[in-house]
Amino acid sequence: MISVEEADKIILKTVKNTSNTEGVSLLNSIGRILGEDIIADRDFPPFDRVTMDGIAFNFTNYKAEQRRFFMENMQAAGEKQLTLIDATHCIEIMTGAVMPLNCDTVVRYEDLKIDNGFAEIQIENVDFQQNTHKKGRDRKLGDVLIPKGKRLSAAEIGTAATVGKSILKVIKLPKVAIISTGNELVEINETPEAHQIRRSNVYSIAALLNDTFKINAHLFHFNDNEIDITEGLKNILLKHDLVILSGAVSEGKFDFVPKALALNNVKCLFHKVAQRPGKPLWFGQQLNKAVVFGLPGNPVSTFMCACRYVLPWINAYLMQKPTNYAFAMLAEDVYFKPDLTYFLQVKLDNNNGILMAKPVAGGGSGDLANLNNADGFLELPINKSIFLKGEIFKFIGFR
Ligand code: AMP
Ligand code: MG
Predict the structure, then answer these.
(1) Which residue, by CA, sits nearest to atom 15 of ligand 1?
(2) Which end of the chain has fewer CB within 10 Å, C or N?
(3) pLDDT tens, 332-369?
(4) Whose CA is nearest to atom 14 of ligand 1?
(5) Cβ–Cβ < 8 Å for 62, 121
């Protein structure tokens, strides 16, 4: 049995860098990893942009004590740049318009008295170039606005849109298969008999991957039959980068997954981790090919292992850097004696900026309904058995 930290190392070693990209439409790119630099196609802003409605004039005349200006013309947003013909006049100007030629300064309507085609400045202090957003002030033509490798959020979409990127190059997602095993499992639209249950695990894993990385995994099922699993895995391993199995990795007489994987030349890199839940976790790889997680079948174990081990593998595959974990403060004392890392289900409460983790332990690794009351797992290390209120631990969130 290896430690959680050793498991992390072994898992991340199997990650190959990927630079394959595909094009997706702008709004479908949210949550994906950018596969190209987004470059400024012009200066930001692209012209001297007026930021207030009012008048534009030449500051030299204001400095020479002129306060009353004849409004010679009007410049709206979306119109070509006008020229102020008489330097002692002004041009009525709107937010978003180009600063007219021979003008450099804007005073807003609120600070003017307007009568008979004249605007008179009512305030004492006017600064040169005020209320203008100078061309190229923010970014220059050719600047990298968003670097390759950035995970796209709504914040990046506006920038990509403004440089005309209707299609973005993003890193290709890994092809993922999720497989349930077990004679007791039926489809979720079936009515189980008394001794059966619905195969919920594949759906929670699929949802987790979709929610986190927009991966659409392929779902499969095998009964507890060594030949069926061995034969079925052949094709699945060939067609996927990542294969996630749920169930049949423990000591049971029908736990055929490790053997079926071995028969398919998937090398076991570890089996069993000193943790609760999820002790029977299995991990391996076909030589330079598919990576395989054999997650224990109990729903909370499956879900915890998917959050704690599968997501970081995908994150490293796509982002080429380790997962950045959050930390939270234990809100109550916790006692856990076994010599295992304990992934405690917790509910988060934000207490004046401090994330407080309140234990909602639940009824064990089969109690999947308890996950609905939790926000994530607090990772309580193996080397202690008493965890005090106020101590800070790694938090693996799933919301
Ligand atoms: P196993 O790891 O195959 O021994 O399964 C452990 C427990 O998890 C058993 O009670 C199984 O019925 C249950 N289980 C296994 N796979 C699933 C699944 N896909 N959905 C829900 N429960 C499962
Ligand atoms: Mg089973």
Answers:
(1) 297
(2) C
(3) 999 999 999 999 999 999 999 999 999 998 999 999 99
(4) 297
(5) yes
